[in-house]
Amino acid sequence: MAEILGGIFASHVPAIGNAIARGLQEDPYWKPFFDGFKPIREWLERVRPDTVVAFYNDHGLNFFLDKMPTFAVGAAATYQNSDEGWGLPVARPVSGDAGLSWHVIESLIADEFDVTTCQEMLVDHALFVPLQLCWPDAASWSFRLVPIAINTVQHPLPSPKRCLALGQAVGRALARYDKDARIVVMGTGGLSHQLDGERAGFINKDYDRFCLENLCPKPELLAQHSSLEIVELSGSQGIEVLNWIAARGALGSAGNLEEVARNYHIPISNTAAASVLISDKAHAKRELA
């Protein structure tokens, strides 16, 4: 049976990919950020997931302003890195888990989420930067991928409450999956940042800390604001926190979870960069037994 091991939440700033490619992990500017992934990598080595279900946002590879689905789920056999040139130059593709993807899609439709199904899907730094941060020395990917894209670009944006509900519906689908799968949920993006306009370079440390403090125990607090309120609080690109909200929803009740690691560092390319690891308590107890 499928088992959700926990969740990883991580920034996907393209400059991180360039820092990895240039070997800058120990550089004083970058080291505080990269050090935050040491406990995440240690945890992954222990739990050894075989599937990653990742909530992220597309940056114009599959969808653009003329055609922008609110929610899209990949159901491809493989996902090729096709970064737009700013991130990590990773050549090898990630294998998909089409069976699990179709199960999630069918479950979401049954739960009245009108998702776009993508039997072909390109992925960019929004997925490959976090994957490389979590598995930096992997000669090949040891897991299969189910990508779920959320519109964080074209208004009207989905509400945080709807994204939380989406994640909860995905969590129910994963719990019903009748094949063996050791699943890690991932949410990528953020935290607060704005890349252009009058507020270019905007970072809101208070809001970021609010998100980090409440992500595990009270995700509903992150969903209390509207999408436009989050844009005001965190910057136009800070709305990527919708990916975190959805991923947290997939992990289920706070009583079954514990935060294992958290890191917050600013700035990374004018962005508030962060990482969080949340583990499922029941799985941890089984591992110790």
Structural write-up:
With 289 residues, the protein is of the alpha/beta class. It has one domain: LigB-like (Protocatechuate 4,5-dioxygenase, Chain B, 3-Layer(aba) Sandwich). Helices cover 36% and strands 21% of the residues. It is built from 11 helices and 11 strands. The protein has helices spanning 14-21, 31-35, 38-47, 98-110, 125-134, 160-176, 205-214, 219-222, 227-234, 241-251, 281-288, and strands spanning 2-10, 51-56, 71-74, 78-81, 94-95, 116-118, 122-123, 144-150, 181-188, 257-265, 273-280. The protein has an 8-stranded mixed β-sheet, sandwiched between helices. α1 (14-21) crosses α5 (125-134), α4 packs across α6 (160-176) and α6 packs parallel to α10. It is globular, with a radius of gyration of 17 Å. The model has no long low-confidence stretch (mean pLDDT 91).
Key features?
about 290 residues; 11 strands; three-stranded mixed sheet; alpha/beta; Protocatechuate 4,5-dioxygenase, Chain B; eight-stranded mixed sheet
Could you say which overall geometry the principal axes of the C-alpha atoms support?
Answer: globular
- How far from one another are the termini? 19 Å
Secondary-structure element order, N to C: EHHHEEEEHEEHEHEHHHHEEH
Overall structural class, as computed from helix and strand content, comes to alpha/beta
For the residues shown, what is the average pLDDT? 91
* Record field, number of beta strands: 11
CATH class categorisation: Alpha Beta
What share of residues is helical? 25-40%
CATH topology: Protocatechuate 4,5-dioxygenase, Chain B
* Proportion of residues in extended strands: 15-25%
Looking at the chains present, what oligomeric state does this protein adopt?
single chain
- CATH homologous superfamily designation: LigB-like
- The CATH architecture term is 3-Layer(aba) Sandwich
Can you tell me the number of structural domains? 1
Radius of gyration: 17 Å
Parts with pLDDT < 50 across at least 5 consecutive residues: none
Annotation field: number of helices: 11
Query: Largest beta sheet, briefly?
Result: 8 strands, mixed
Give the strand order, joined by hyphens, for the main sheet.
6-3-8-2-9-1-11-10
